[in-house]
Amino acid sequence: MTIDEYAAWAAGVAKVDEHPSNERLSYLGLGLAGESGEVAEHIKKLLRDDWLDKAGLVEELGDVIYYWACLCAATGQQPSELLEASAAKIKRRISEASSR
């Protein structure tokens, strides 16, 4: 399954279209923030206990991707194009930093 196929599937599950209500966008954004917080909790526990629940972390990362993919669909973005744009932005920042 490609990232674009996954996003289309996730949008279908979440009943997201390209013209979502403010309530639906808020729900998806809060879902993404909440799941990102769960990822942060795993990292915090790694620092505190010097042990990582890798399976739990991976599960939470999957939840982050779900909400991210739904938000991509809700904003009419193809995830693959967004990833390419993100990579280009990061490469540009690295290039700018190395030229300073």
From TrEMBL:
InterPro entries: MazG-like_dom, MazG-related_GP37. It comes from Bradyrhizobium campsiandrae. This is Nucleoside triphosphate pyrophosphohydrolase family protein. Residues 30-93 form the NTP pyrophosphohydrolase MazG-like domain. It holds the Pfam family MazG.
